[in-house]
Amino acid sequence: MTTPPPHPPSRDLDLGQGFRFFFEDPDWIKKILIGGVFMLLSSLIVGGIFVAGYGVHVVRRVVRGEPRPLPEWDQLGLFLGDGLQAFGLYLLHLVAVAIVPLGFGCVIGLMGGGMASVFQSSRTASDAAGGLLAVAVGGLYAVTMLLMLLLAVYFPAAFTRFAVRGRFGAGFEVAENLSFIRRNLGRYALALVLYLLASLVAQVGIIACCVGIFPASFWAFCVAAWAMGEVARRDPLLAPALAP
Question: What's this model's pTM, rounded to 2 decimal places?
Fold first, then answer.
């Protein structure tokens, strides 16, 4: 007997399903506990690599419309390979974002040293220079926070296109990634909101229900992967890459 093809997705994301899908898996307890262990090992980086690879496969299974999007933890080799690419993708984006603040930080440091030598004989001028440097440092902090916020909004698109296309380079196709966001702007924003809500629920669960922080964090990450997979599944240009 052949398996019937999956139903075409509805136009909008189902927020309720985003919270339910994990617990509809008959082996969800085993999967969340193993995921929690790898989250715990994230402090050694290697755990985070396996979790990232797991997320790549969640995205792919969602795009294919599989009814159980959580893969088994029996493909560690695949998770490691895909996770290394996902980790490298994020690291390179982080370095690219950090270049600007680091450059300004070096300029501010040089200015501070120069002003200190020029105005050391005048207390009033020295105070004014100190105030100017404080404003520059505050501006640098604001720019850094803005760039990190933009990265947090942009990177899920790069991660999703890498996961669906199966090409490391797809994550660096800036124009295509931005186009993916624009084509799915409402759903993309809803997916980010869903992840924020899942993270909030995870934090509340940790406090109110004594749920372990690592399994809860793993669940929230899987919700984010599910949400981005659902966005990609509805994208007419991206979904055919993983057609069943």
Answer: 0.83
